[in-house]
Structure formats: structure tokens, C-alpha cells
């Protein structure tokens, strides 16, 4: 199952971008034997400013995908439950999972309506760049949990 972290905005050479990319690469390497991956970070920018334009650009990338939108009103999952969710989606035959992080103003209503579910990082508000790195880390953690690796400790 291909896993895409679809994000609004380009981080360039920011340390958080390198951190997210590093976790995506580690998840790809660890997930091969589990049919999880590749894990990719896809940055998009809309040609026009605003949530509606960002929403159009995001929706164009979601064809035939199971979509989890990161949203403050979403459900928070413990790491093991998130790992189980990835395994279930893979076992159901899903070919692509897209995890979306919107722009500074959040996600357009059309994107939230298209999402199969929503995910929250808890009640706190996190900077966009850190949320991207945190999401990539959780995907890596989920893969290592499913692989039986020592990375995650309960």
C-alpha cells in the first residue's frame, strides 16, 4: 500500500522538512517486507491563496485513495491503534492511503467531506511544519510496530 503524506505548502530546506523526509525514507525501508510503502511526502501549492483553492489542489490528488485528513476535530489514536489501522487498510486491499495536512487555515469543507476519516494530534495546536514531521514519525512508528521492531516501547 502506497502511503502519501499530502501537505499544503513547501518547507524548502527547513529542518522539519528534512525530519519528515527522513522518517518517510525509514518507513519505506522498514515497510517493504510488510507491503507498506513507499511512503512519500507530496507538497502542493495552489495557484490562488485560500482554503478553497488549496482544497481544489488537494482533491485533485485523491483519486482512488483512502483518505485520512488531519483535523483538530478528528479522532486521536494511540500509536498501536494507528498501526492496526494501517494493517487493516492494507489487508482490505487498499492500494493507496493519503494522509492530508492542510494549510494555515485548515482544510476546505470539501476535503473534509471527501475524507474517509479524520485524525487529530490531540487537543493542542501544532505548527504546520512540526505536524508534518510528527505525522511522518507516526507512520514510521506504525511500520516498526507492525514489523515487531524495538523502536516503539509501551
Task: Offer a few descriptive terms.
five-stranded parallel β-sheet, 42% helix, single chain, 154 residues, alpha/beta, Alpha/beta knot
Number of helices: 5
Indicate the low-confidence ranges by residue numbers.
none
Helix coverage percent: 40-55%
SSE order: EHEHEHEHEH
What is the C-alpha radius of gyration, as a whole number of Å? Answer: 15 Å
Tell me the fraction of residues in β-strands, as a range.
15-25%
**Tell me about the biggest sheet?**
5 strands, parallel
**Which fold does the CATH topology refer to?**
Alpha/beta knot
Number of domains: 1
CATH class: Alpha Beta
Number of strands: 5
Shape: globular
Q: If strands are numbered along the chain, what order do they take across the biggest sheet?
A: 2-1-4-3-5
How far apart are the first and last residues' alpha carbons, in Å?
Answer: 26 Å
